[in-house]
Amino acid sequence: LIKAGTNLDAINEEGQSALTMAIGRQHMNVVKLLMDHGATTDRSGYLVAKPLHVAVGTRNMELIKCILDYGADIDEATASGTVLTVAIQAGHKDLVSLLLSRNADPDVTDSTSMHTSLFWAVLHRNSDIISMLLKHGA
């Protein structure tokens, strides 16, 4: 299908692209194949989530790193927040650390409540994540 010129960013009736479906199913080889052949991380997918947001939902660190390596916008905000705020709300310290090490901006607000990452860390009373955020300029 790729050789035949199939539109890799086409969205199905459920709002998913081939890339977001492969990410959701954690098929790393398919994800890399699609991205190597031009599938974009900038296209909205399932439930208007960006591919990086779908990857974060899997909690698969290697998959998340892969999507970041292909240039996904780490600070893209959706209705559910940025990937950093999503990780903070889930209490996923390793992911928060990864995102901050990849230069996620702790001061970007989510698109609905306009709260920052530090707000969410304080709300969830996560002192380890608060400390990480402060070390990264929040």
UniProtKB/TrEMBL annotation:
InterPro entries: Ankyrin_rpt (IPR002110), Ankyrin_rpt-contain_sf (IPR036770). SMART domains: ANK. The keyword Magnesium does not apply. ANK repeats lie at residues 14-46, 51-79, 79-111. Keywords: ANK repeat, Repeat. This is Ankyrin. It comes from Amniculicola lignicola CBS 123094. The lineage of its organism: Eukaryota, Fungi, Dikarya, Ascomycota, Pezizomycotina.
